[in-house]
């Protein structure tokens, strides 16, 4: 495993000196990037100001909900949108309209204390597909 902090200028892993420099959370060796399954992933961002239905392209994406009035994220059933198990979709509320989450027919969204609304401006939450039609929802949530 490679371990580094932003102040590290010389990187060693398993006794091998990579002579790497660290810039933020990205580890470089000369001009090439050392890849790791633990490296952070850049998120694409989708902007929405109204009801938003998840699509195949939303895996590893941030859905930025910026509407002035109430908005809804709809999690579709697998037969309509077959996101793979393990898919993660982040959601942020960047407008005044409160964001709520709802499930299509046959879909279960599991959330602590059955909370399905973001708490307010700049609140975030993540949806993770646990099974074919089952999603976990966690984050800054309320009822």
Summarize the SSE layout with pairings.
Elements: E1 12-13, E2 16-17, E3 21-23, E4 26-29, E5 32-33, E6 44-48, E7 52-53, E8 61-65, E9 71-75, E10 88-93, E11 99-103, E12 108-111, E13 117-118, E14 124-131, E15 134-139, E16 141-142
Parallel strand pairs: 6-8, 7-9, 8-10, 9-11, 12-15
Antiparallel strand pairs: 1-2, 3-4, 4-5, 10-14, 13-16, 14-15
Largest sheet, described in full? 6 strands, mixed
- Fraction of helical residues: under 10%
Q: Which class of secondary structure composition applies to the elements?
A: mainly beta
Query: What is the end-to-end distance?
Result: 41 Å
What general form does the structure show? globular
Mean pLDDT: 82
Radius of gyration: 19 Å
For the largest sheet, list the strands in their spatial order: 6-8-10-14-15-12
The unreliable regions are: 1-14, 16-36
Percentage of residues in DSSP E strands: 35-45%
Helical element count?
Answer: 0
Q: How would you spell out the order of helices and strands? A: EEEEEEEEEEEEEEEE
Number of strands: 16
Give an overview of the whole structure.
The chain has 143 residues and is an all-beta fold. Helices cover 0% and strands 44% of the residues. The strands form 5 sheets. Strands 6-8-10-14-15-12 form a 6-stranded mixed β-sheet, with no helix packed on it. Strand 1 and strand 2 form a beta hairpin. The termini are far apart.
Task: Summarize this entry quickly.
This protein has no helices and 16 strands. The protein is mainly β.
């Amino acid at each position: 495993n490679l371990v580094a902090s932003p102040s590290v200028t010389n990187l060693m892993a398993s006794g091998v000196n990579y002579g790497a420099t660290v810039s933020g959370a990205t580890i470089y060796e000369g001009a090439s990037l050392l890849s790791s399954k633990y490296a952070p992933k850049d998120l694409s961002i989708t902007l929405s100001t109204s009801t938003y239905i998840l699509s195949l392209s939303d895996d590893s994406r941030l859905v930025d909900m910026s509407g002035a009035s109430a908005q809804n994220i709809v999690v579709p059933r697998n037969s309509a949108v077959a996101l793979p198990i393990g898919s993660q979709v982040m959601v942020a509320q960047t407008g005044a309209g409160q964001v709520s989450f709802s499930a299509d027919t046959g879909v279960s969204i599991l959330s602590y204390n059955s909370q399905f609304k973001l708490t307010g401006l700049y609140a975030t939450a993540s949806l993770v597909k646990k099974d074919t039609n089952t999603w976990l929802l966690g984050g800054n949530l309320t009822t």
